[in-house]
Each structure stands twice: as C-alpha cells, then as structure tokens.
Amino acid sequence: MKLIARIGQHFTESAQLKLQAIDRIAEPLAAAAERMVKCLMADGKILSCGNGGSAADAQHFSSELLNRFERERPGLAAMALTTDASTLTSIANDYDYEQVFAKQVLALGQPGDVLLAISSSGHSRNVLRAIDAAHEREMDVVALTGKGGGRMAELLQGGDIDICAPGDSTARIQEIHLLAIHCLCDGIDCLLLGAE
User: Fold this and answer.
1) Cα angle, residue 168 at apex, residues 162 and 172 outer, rounded to 5°
2) Please, what's the b/e burial string for 9-44 (b: 16 or more CB within 10 A of its CB; e: otherwise)?
3) CATH no. for residue 8?
4) Which of 12, 16, 122, 164 has CB atoms 3.0–4.6 Å from 152's, for a disulfide?
5) Whole domain around residue 32: which residue ranges?
6) Neighbours of 158 (CB within 10 A)
7) Of 169, 140, 188, 193, whose CA–CA distance to 18 is shortest?
8) What pTM does this model have?
9) Can you name the residues that pair with 155 across neighbouring β-strands?
10) 72: Cβ–Cβ under 8 A, 6 or more apart, which residues?
C-alpha cells in the first residue's frame, strides 16, 4: 500500500469511528460538562491524570480551562497531576509508581471536586489508584476510557460518569478522547457563558 493511501485510510477510519461514537458518548459528555460546571460554581476544582498520550490530554484539558478555550472568560480551577516531575519522581521512588496520582489526589482533592481520569485501555494502575483516592476524598470521577472501559469502569460508583470511546485501536481512541476534551471545554463554556 502506498503511503498516501495509508494516510487516507487513517483519516477515513478516524472520521468513521468518531461518527459512530456520537450516539454512545454524547450523553455522558453532556452529563460530565454539567457535573464539572456544578463543581466549578461551588468553588471546586478539576484534577486530571493519565499516562503517555493521556497525560498530554490531561494537560491539554487543564490548560484550556485555566487559560481559555475558544472564548474569553476568567480562568477556571483545573490542574493536571502529570506535570510536576519532582512530585512524580519522589512518589515513584519513595512509594510506587502506582501511587503517583493517588497521593496527589489525597493531598489536593476536596469533597465535591472532580477527577478526570484518562486511560485508553481503562487498565492503568496508577489511574485506578487515583479513582480510589478520589472516592476516598468524596470526589466525583469522570472517566475517559476505551476498549470497553476496562477495570476503570468496574471502579466507578453511582455518581461517576464513564465516557468510553468505541474501537480497539489506541490511536483512534486517543483521537476520540481529544475531541471529547474539546466537547467538554465547549460544554463548560456554553453552560457558564451561554451559547454564542
């Protein structure tokens, strides 16, 4: 297969899977945006975490809230737990890599805050521990998953929300996750500022 045809196949697969995902994730995305706005309006904050590409997604989400998305507004309280190398390495060294997010959630999270937990497989052990920690701190969890939700889906409790991207390809799941993050940011702005 020529490279140009292969590139075209990636675009086609991505577009088709995104269209298939609408019916499955639009409702949980709307519910998650509403939950996050409720948290922010009560002076709460949104913590986010993930590994690799999901760490980048966690940072992308928090930057869109702290700075702005597509409209001017005051910054919103959001924090990615993936950015502080000294904290991450000290926890991993002194305890275990599985604790790198959980210890931060226990220290920074408050009842009513929201944890955005991101894992394309739904099996990331340090994200699973972060969900446990969030529940211990009486926080709501919004899980951004794929591949059926994995172990993360099993940990979610009654008030939590699972946004599970369809498909088995990690790349395609991550592409849907990025669109979902933009939908969350837009939904939050829409609920706070009104539709443009």
Assistant:
1) 85
2) eeeeebeebbeebeeebeebbeebbebbbebbeeeb
3) 3.40.50.10490
4) 122
5) 3-193
6) 4
7) 169
8) 0.96
9) none
10) none
Average pLDDT of the chain, as a whole number = 96
The percentage of residues in the chain with a pLDDT greater than 70, rounded to a whole number, is 99
Q: What is the pLDDT of residue 71?
A: 92
Q: Residues 150-160: what's their mean pLDDT?
A: 95
User: 171 is written with which tokens?
Assistant: 């790349």
CB 147 within 8 A of CB 120: yes
Are 118 and 49 contacting, i.e. CB atoms less than 8 angstroms apart? yes
Assign 50 to helix, strand or coil.
coil
Specify the residue for token string 């045809």: 5
No. of H helices and E strands in the chain?
7, 5
> What is the tens place of the pLDDT at every residue in 3-61?
999 999 999 999 999 999 999 999 999 999 999 999 999 999 999 999 999 999 999 99
Residue 1 has pLDDT above 70, yes or no: no
Whole-angstrom CA distances from 51 to 83, 119, 123 are: 11, 7, 11
